[in-house]
């Protein structure tokens, strides 16, 4: 068989990417010093030999972790900075105050437990999905080929390779049929490497063309790049604006909390000569609400529930921030084949050219179909239309598999009469000169959304001859009709409705792709561009990308450049694909989405895998991402408003040298009704708005003025109440009045955040208000929470101050919305 490197069509290689693994100075990661290769055994190992190697531990036992272990989950949820602070305060309160002042501690225990349970459920879902999505390499044993799990491979196994297959263990090539391997995940070099028998192959690389087999020489943890396969599907918390933003907020909160808490402790215990236990209780009551502990928990729960929800839809989330990233996507790049169209195609017509005999052309196509043991969709359609008989008169003498860089495949035959002939089958606009009159005929077919291949005869029988493609004689046109996905049109309409731009990027003819997209209702499908005319300047390319919707004849390197060009304009790009030619673009896109039936290589580098192979699942994934990020942004404002007013109240208390107005039970009640319970429901509610950048700024621009207004109104009520009440029960009456104001103002913040209103949102806000009213009117709850409104003047004054604060809140929120945008 002829071994031939990919024709780069004159394209210059892309810039080298940094290697994922540092090999060290002494060792070449791809071509290390190896002992002599083991003798090739075409039939593979016997069952007895496999059992013997398993017994010796020579098995590929690298564990594939799709999530954190249970121990890590418990540790991450329990041992947090704020759990430590609250835990210490809780223990203190258990000794110095009634149990109702220690309720905040039980809430933390419950929240932590919920966080552990939710992540454990997500872990089980991910583990099961990872097994479903795991590729099964084909291994020869006892003379037969069979698919087995990656972890069942043993030393010495003979593993078959085809286009798109990932090399799962280290080995030595035993058979090669134009075998070309992409080692970019190891070396950063995007150009494929031609492999011959005896050459090493490393785990983490994948086949881009041709086929063959290799013998496993290193398995398990001994494989040089084994960790690549493990990292590809790990449940990670890599870059996430949401989580990094929350960490930034918590850092600032800690800086504010420490000096404020110290000042409050000194104020309540030293300056004021109060009952010691009561002073401790009120001091703790001032410190606890400064901590937005529920925000971290709720974020984890929202992410975990998102993973479980997507898992039920057969969507494997390989990296957790992918859920957040999808919320920010404003451009989706789609590969036509396998995304807009189903994998299969049908031959609708064969048109002989230049007086060629139709029966002869059919015999060429029939034999061509037998030349590739791993046919692509186009060749499979030809095989289905022209199956080879058992007593074939023609034989295949040479073959050159299809390459997305070449845009054609080749085969050489010995015909029935002994004549030798060589043929190319591929893109007409690549094999024909630009002035060929046949292109006009092909253009008409492309405009109907049909795919056209050209069968051309090569002079001589050497597929590798210089200029073989340029000198090929056109013999026939093979017209193929692609099967449209029935749900693709609705999916494109969803993206248009959500203001997400859709770009169809394909290796096929641009006009043909545009016709297919037009049938599915893609806006701007008539704006097509042949990628061979795409400008190489990144800025000009970005302009072309924004002005057009359909791109044809795109090379794998161009797909990568197009993603980078869109990102240079500030776009957040999602890329879908299922073929090897999509891998480079999937790696560089903000979010890579692979089909479950796609190549192992695409599934390894994608953050999201659609296991059901349905493009229609993507809107659900995008919606889930928007729900998570949008709702967390909403509820973060609730939590941080509480932090701001708690810190400011403590500062005002220290400056004025008065008793802190609240006991822990009061703020536990307020936090539960105005933040905890509603935040849980709001965080899980539908939300279709695309997430905006600058999470911290967007949250704080609302939380700071809201917290300042709430603290100011509450402290004014408290000071007025101190002048109004006197006697033994004055402090309890003052606390009740201040609590009423703080609750009403906090409820108004909740009412603003709950917009736009639906029946359940109105019901949620009303239920929280009803809960507080019940506490005020039921005697035993009044005693339990130490809340009892005294008289009528002061309670109505508290209400009036809260109403004024609510009006100010409305004005400030509207002003911020106009000044900075929603």
From TrEMBL:
Taxonomic classification: Bacteria, Bacillati, Actinomycetota, Actinomycetes, Kitasatosporales
Protein name (database record): HAD-IC family P-type ATPase
NCBIfam families according to UniProt: ATPase_P-type
Organism of this sequence: Streptomyces pakalii
Subcellular location per the Swiss-Prot or TrEMBL entry: Cell membrane
Region entry Disordered, spans: 1-43
InterPro entries, per the entry: ATPase_P-typ_cyto_dom_N (IPR023299), ATPase_P-typ_P_site (IPR018303), ATPase_P-typ_TM_dom_sf (IPR023298), ATPase_P-typ_transduc_dom_A_sf (IPR008250), ATPase_P-type_domA (IPR059000), HAD-like_sf (IPR036412), HAD_sf (IPR023214), P_typ_ATPase (IPR001757)
Positions of the P-type ATPase A domain: 137-231
Transmembrane feature ranges: 78-97, 103-120, 252-271, 291-310, 635-654, 666-687, 699-721, 733-753, 760-781, 793-813
């Amino acid at each position: 068989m002829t071994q031939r490197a990919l024709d780069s069509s004159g394209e210059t290689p892309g810039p080298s990417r940094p290697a994922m693994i540092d090999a060290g100075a002494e060792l070449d990661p791809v071509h290390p010093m190896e002992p002599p290769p083991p003798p090739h055994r075409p039939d593979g190992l016997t069952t007895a030999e496999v059992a013997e190697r398993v017994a010796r531990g020579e098995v590929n036992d690298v564990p594939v972790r799709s999530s954190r272990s249970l121990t890590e989950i418990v540790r991450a949820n329990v041992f947090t900075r704020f759990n430590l602070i609250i835990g210490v305060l809780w223990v203190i309160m258990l000794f110095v105050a009634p149990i109702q002042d220690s309720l905040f501690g039980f809430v933390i225990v419950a929240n932590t437990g919920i966080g552990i349970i939710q992540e454990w459920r997500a872990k089980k879902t991910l583990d099961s999905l990872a097994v479903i999505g795991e590729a099964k390499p084909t291994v020869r044993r006892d003379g037969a080929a069979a698919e087995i799990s990656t972890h069942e491979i043993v030393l010495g196994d003979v593993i078959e390779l085809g286009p798109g297959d990932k090399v799962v263990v280290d080995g030595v090539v035993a058979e090669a049929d134009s075998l070309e391997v992409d080692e970019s995940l190891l070396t950063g070099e995007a150009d494929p490497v031609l492999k011959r028998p005896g050459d090493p192959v490393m785990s983490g690389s994948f086949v881009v063309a041709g086929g063959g087999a290799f013998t496993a020489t290193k398995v398990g943890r001994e494989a040089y790049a084994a960790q690549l396969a493990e990292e590809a599907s790990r449940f990670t918390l890599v870059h996430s604006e949401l989580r990094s933003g929350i960490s930034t907020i918590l850092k600032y909160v800690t800086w504010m909390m420490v000096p404020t808490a110290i000042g409050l402790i000194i104020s309540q215990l030293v300056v004021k000569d109060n009952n010691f236990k009561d002073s401790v209780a009120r001091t703790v009551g001032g410190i606890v609400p400064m901590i937005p502990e529920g925000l971290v928990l709720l974020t984890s729960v929202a992410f975990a529930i998102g993973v479980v929800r997507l898992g039920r839809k057969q969507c494997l989330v390989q990296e957790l921030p992918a859920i957040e990233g999808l919320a920010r996507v404003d451009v989706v790049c789609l590969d036509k084949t396998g995304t807009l169209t189903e994998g299969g195609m049908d031959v609708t017509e064969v048109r002989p050219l230049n007086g060629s005999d139709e029966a002869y052309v059919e015999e060429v196509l029939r034999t061509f179909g037998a030349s590739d043991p791993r046919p692509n969709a186009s060749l499979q359609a030809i095989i289905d239309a022209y199956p080879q008989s058992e007593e074939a008169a023609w034989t295949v003498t040479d073959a050159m598999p299809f390459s997305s860089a070449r845009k054609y495949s080749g085969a050489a035959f010995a015909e029935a009469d002994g004549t030798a002939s060589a043929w190319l089958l591929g893109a007409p606009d690549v094999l024909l000169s630009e002035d060929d009159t046949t292109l006009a005929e092909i253009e008409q077919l492309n405009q109907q959304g049909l795919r056209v291949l050209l069968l051309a005869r090569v002079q001589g029988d050497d597929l590798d001859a210089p200029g073989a493609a340029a000198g090929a004689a056109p013999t026939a046109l093979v017209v193929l009709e692609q099967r449209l996905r029935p749900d693709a049109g609705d999916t494109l309409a969803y993206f248009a409705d959500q203001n997400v731009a859709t770009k169809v990027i394909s290796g096929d003819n641009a006009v043909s792709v545009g016709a297919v997209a037009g049938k599915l209702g893609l806006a701007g499908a008539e704006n097509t561009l042949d990628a061979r005319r795409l400008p190489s300047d990144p800025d000009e390319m970005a302009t072309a990308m924004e002005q057009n919707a359909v791109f044809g004849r795109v090379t794998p390197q161009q797909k990568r450049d197009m993603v980078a060009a869109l990102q240079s304009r500030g776009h957040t790009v999602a890329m879908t694909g299922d073929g090897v030619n999509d891998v480079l673009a999937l790696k560089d896109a903000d979010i890579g989405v692979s089909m479950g039936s796609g190549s192992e290589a695409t599934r390894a580098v994608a953050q999201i895998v659609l296991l059901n192979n349905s493009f229609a699942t993507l809107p659900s994934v995008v919606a889930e991402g928007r729900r998570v990020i949008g709702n967390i942004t909403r509820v973060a404002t609730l939590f941080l408003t509480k932090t701001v007013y708690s810190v400011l109240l403590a500062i005002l208390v220290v400056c004025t040298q008065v008793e802190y107005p609240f006991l822990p039970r009061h703020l536990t009640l307020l936090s539960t009704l105005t933040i905890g319970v509603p935040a849980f429901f709001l965080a899980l509610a539908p939300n279709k708005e695309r997430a905006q950048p600058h999470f911290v700024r967007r949250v704080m621009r609302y939380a700071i003025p809201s917290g300042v207004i709430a603290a100011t109104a509450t402290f004014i009520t408290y000071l007025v109440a101190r002048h109004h009440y006197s006697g033994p029960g004055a402090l309890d009456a003052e606390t009740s009045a201040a609590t009423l104001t703080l609750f009403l103002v906090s409820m108004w913040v909740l009412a603003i955040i709950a917009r736009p209103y639906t029946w359940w949102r109105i019901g949620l806000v009303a239920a929280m208000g009803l809960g507080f009213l019940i506490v005020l009117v039921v005697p035993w709850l009044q005693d339990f929470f130490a809340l009892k409104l005294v008289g009528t003047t002061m309670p109505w004054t508290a209400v009036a101050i809260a109403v004024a604060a609510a009006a100010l809140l409305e004005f400030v929120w509207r002003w911020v919305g106009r000044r900075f945008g929603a």
